[in-house]
Automatic annotation (TrEMBL):
GO molecular function, one term: transketolase activity
Protein name as catalogued: Transketolase
GO cellular component: cytosol
CDD domains, A to Z: TPP_PYR_DXS_TK_like (cd07033)
Length: 266
């Protein structure tokens, strides 16, 4: 590293006459955005107040989604769906149970914004209301291509913006490609549902699958991330409850219920 003498000479050559960590007033003034930001926020608030007066229902929905609150009828309708599952038990793959949950909750949650890294038919994260986002930005599903890191990072940005509930999906073995973005989501405490399927010991073979799983110690690595809930369902109801909890995670911390005969939940 440069010593004090070399640092002094460098500053002299650069024409920098200020003390260490001193910010010249003219530079500070150029970067000080408080007044401009306050003016823009005030203008936006005035516009939204007028919008709220003209369109109260739409404004209330916008406010709900930006706050991350759940619709008033969500719990009741989720309970109805779970009751139907219990009344008509079936044996299906956990990723299919996950898709059924998305199918049930999708119409209730217009903020759902799904996507997959080129594996949507295998991850089963498409539902009947899915509409691809391409030239038409009014869709609700993003086909990310083989871009696990890009997918997760983009979903982080969507979550930071607010108003949407992004969910992403790929095979569990590919979580390592997205690891940095996964870690950032956890550190930032952002709401993103990450669906990882095909969780076999034989990585990539289509054996038991779930929204989170056992492959190669990866669930343990996921669990290492503070603020990240890594959950594997042990039955169909467990898979539905995971989606129910994940959809409103910032505002609830209730545990998953036990399911008779279920095994492998963690």
């Amino acid at each position: 590293p440069l010593g004090d003498a070399e640092i002094a000479l460098t500053r002299e050559q650069l024409g920098w006459k200020y003390a260490p960590f001193e910010i010249p007033s003219e530079i500070y003034a150029q970067w000080d955005a408080k007044e401009a930001g306050q003016a823009k926020e005030s203008a936006w608030n005035e516009k939204f107040a007028a919008y709220e007066k003209a369109f109260p229902q739409e404004a209330a929905e916008f406010t709900r989604r930006m706050k991350g609150d759940m619709p008033a009828d969500f719990d009741a309708k989720a309970n109805e769906f779970i009751a139907k599952l219990q009344a008509n038990p079936s044996k299906i793959a956990s990723r299919k149970a996950s898709q059924n949950a998305i199918e049930a909750f999708g119409p209730l949650l217009p903020e759902f914004l799904g996507g997959s890294a080129d594996l949507a038919p295998s991850n089963l994260t498409l539902w009947s209301g899915s509409k691809a986002i391409n030239e038409d930005a009014a869709g609700n599903y993003i086909h990310y291509g083989v871009r696990e890191f890009g997918m997760t990072a983009i979903a982080n940005g969507i979550a930071l913006h607010g108003g949407f509930l992004p969910y992403t999906s790929t095979f569990l073995m590919f979580v390592e490609y997205a690891r940095n973005a996964v870690r950032m989501a956890a550190l930032m405490k952002q709401r993103q549902v990450m669906v990882y399927t095909h969780d076999s010991i034989g990585l990539g073979r289509r054996w038991p699958d779930a929204p989170a799983g056992r492959a190669g110690g990866k669930p343990a690595r996921n669990a290492e991330h503070v603020h990240m809930a890594s959950v594997r369902p042990g039955g169909i109801r467990g898979g539905v409850e995971i989606w129910r909890r994940a959809s409103g995670w910032p505002n609830r911390a209730d545990p998953l219920p036990s399911e008779p005969g279920a095994a492998g939940t963690y």
